[in-house]
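> example.struct
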């Protein structure tokens, strides 16, 4: 009989070796919810800040162009943010972010850096405006 206890640590080592530590983690809404719940629980025990950011691409363009816009924005944001940050295409024209170890006062700088990097590579369609809202995870109760 094989000892399965020995395979668990090696599997974790293999997973850790394949993590991309150079960019933020982009995930599905389901994964985001799981991580969000864990961060909310941690927030009850720990005092370091966690910030939620909601981005909405407001305006009317085709679904295909919106999808391309979202994909490009997510790629730029993932490259701009830290490895411990979390990004998710929440629903059509909406992206949410979870940024550990950042307070809401610094989110404007973060958002401006993402916007600048995005606009240096892509053009925002004139029909679209970028609406943002940021708050501490304790104040975010929409999930």
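> example.seq
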């Amino acid at each position: 009989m094989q000892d399965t206890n020995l395979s668990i640590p090696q599997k974790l080592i293999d997973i850790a070796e394949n993590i991309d530590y150079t960019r933020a983690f982009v995930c599905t809404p389901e994964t985001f919810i799981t991580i969000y719940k864990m961060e909310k629980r941690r927030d009850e025990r720990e005092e370091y800040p966690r910030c939620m950011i909601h981005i909405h691409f407001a305006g009317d363009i085709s679904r295909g162009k919106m999808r391309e816009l979202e994909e490009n924005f997510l790629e730029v944001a993932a490259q701009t943010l830290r490895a411990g940050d979390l990004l998710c295409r929440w629903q059509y024209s909406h992206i949410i972010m979870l940024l550990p170890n950042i307070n809401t006062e610094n989110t404007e700088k973060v958002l401006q850096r993402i916007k600048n990097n995005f606009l240096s590579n892509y053009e925002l369609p004139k029909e679209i405006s970028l609406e943002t809202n940021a708050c501490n995870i304790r104040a975010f109760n929409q999930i």
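> remarks
The beta strands are 25-27, 50-59, 86-91, 94-100, 128-136.
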